[in-house]
Amino acid sequence: MHHDNKIPHGPHRGGLFALTPLLVFLASYLLVSLVAGDFYRMPVSVAFLAAAVYAVATTRDLPFARRIELFSAGASNGNVMLMIWIFILAGAFAESARSMGAVDATVNLTLHLLPDSLLPAGLFLASCFVSLAIGTSVGTIVALVPVAGGIAAETGSNAAWLTAIVAGGAFFGDNLSFISDTTIAATRTQECDLRDKFRVNIRIVAPAAVATLALYILTGEAVGGATATERIEWVRVVPYLLVLVTALCGMNVMKVLLLGILSSGLIGMAAGSFTALEWCSGMGRGITGMGELIIITMLAGGVLEMLRHNGGIDYLIGLMTHRIRGRRGAEASIAGLVCVANLCTANNTIAILTVGPIARKIADRFGIDRRRSASLLDTFSCFTQGLLPYGAQLLMAAGLTGLSPLEIIRYLYYPFIMGLCALLAIVLRYPRSVAGAPVAGAPAPKP
Questions:
Q1: If residue 441 lies in a helix (H) or strand (E), which one and from where to where?
Q2: Residue 381 clears pLDDT 90, i.e. is over it
Q3: Domain extent listing, the chain
């Protein structure tokens, strides 16, 4: 492998030109859809392919073979490959659970436990609790979206709406959980304690969660009347219970999914739902169904690597921190930095790691409590990630339900309200206990 310090800088390195692959993607995805009059006509994979071809073609400071090598390194880095393995296992588990009747049994159980009017609120609370406990929005979506889809089919409700309820709640825990990678990244880059960050962060987003829950309680009547449910087959609920319990105990999400696949297969064969060969065929269908998602993830990783090489991310950071005035402006710059980085990377953890060191310098320079800067980084990254049609969470939810990410986004109330609450926290200097003074040991603000 070549080292970056041996790579010559091209004439456009670090300038606005370095960001043009992102513009090509946005133009391909959004403008073509607008011209066609249908936001579901343009595949995300094709838009990313156009951006990838353009990024490789315009990186002139390297030989063509080296450009391909650099793009491939980005498409296959550790974070990208980890997501791909999760997608593969999630596809196999989802189809195994569906084939052996786990989804139908779980839907029946849910309909027995909750009246129709409380199903949306119950789904949101379950998603918030599970994501807070397991620390992963993707894992929460894998576990609960099939249940939401089953409830939609059983009650005749809007599948995109119920899916969005689960996806929104998943970002609650992604933002707050002690074992969430975004929380860990935010606190490490800001050099503050997890518990201290949680105490500040929960005060910013709790109003958003309460408002969203109230909204779902008020709109619960939109859920159609449930069909009379059959007898609950508890044994078929076991795979989902196993997934939830092991995830709550802190087990790695890949091990959790493997246990879910194995339990679904064993119970399905024992109950006569399928043979061993049919089980394997079902897993194959589930994995194949994740094919576009895997391709998009790899293309996005490659485009990101080209952006980094050409200095696009560094240019954005410099541009957005050029004229900061006062603490509110500094906090707004931190929020803007992580939002833009998230748009470029489609990964909130990578976005936090990318701009975290810069955010810490801004916080120290303007006397912002590091617990607060960590909370802003985490909250605004989750807000942005929750609205990306090409983000892993919405792609996963869409893949599990057969919907378009854009169909789901229009019903994602919690990320919108969370972003609004975070913005008001900056404007109103809330919570005031940490809105003005840096933590002990941090440099004093400069004039």
A1: none
A2: yes
A3: 78-186+193-291
Highest-scoring range by mean pLDDT, 13-17, 89-93, 440-444: 89-93
- How far apart CA 386 and CA 381 sit, in angstroms, is 8
The long-range contacts involving 32-39, CB below 8 angstroms and separated by at least 24 positions, are 39/404, 39/406
406-424 in b/e burial notation, b at 16+ Cβ within 10 A? ebbbeebbbbbbbbebbbe
| DSSP track, 288-317 | HHTHHHHHHHHHHHHHHHHHHHTTHHHHHH
Beta carbons of 167 and 345 less than 8 angstroms apart? no
The answer on pLDDT for 10 being more than 50 is no
Question: Quick one: pLDDT at residue 352?
Answer: 85
245 pLDDT exceeds 90?
A: no
Q: Report in angstroms the alpha-carbon separations of 386 from 5, 137, 370, 414.
A: 35, 10, 24, 9
Q: What is the pLDDT of residues 123-146, one digit of tens each?
A: 898 888 878 766 778 878 887 888
For residues 238 and 261, give the distance between their C-alpha atoms in angstroms, rounded to a whole number.
Answer: 11
What separation in angstroms does the CA of 248 have from each of 106, 109, 133, 134, 370?
18, 20, 5, 5, 29
- pLDDT category at 276 given cuts 50, 70, 90 is very high
How far apart, in whole angstroms, are the C-alpha atoms of residue 299 and residue 367? 40
Can you give the pLDDT at residue 166? 93
Q: Give the three-state DSSP class for 366.
A: coil
Closest CA to 337 of 184, 443, 189, 211: 189
Question: Contact 313/307 with Cβ under 8 angstroms?
Answer: yes
pLDDT tens string 216-225: 988 876 665 5
**pTM, 2 dp:** 0.69
Radius of gyration of the chain from Cα atoms? Answer: 23
Q: What is the mean pLDDT of residues 334-355?
A: 83
The answer to whether 310 and 67 are in contact (CB under 8 A) is no
Instruction: Answer whether 15's CB lies under 8 Å from 58's CB.
Output: no
CA angle 257, 260, 264 (to 5 degrees): 145
Q: In this structure, are residues 219 and 116 in contact, taking their beta carbons and an 8 Å threshold?
A: no
**Count of CB atoms within 10 A of residue 271's CB?**
13
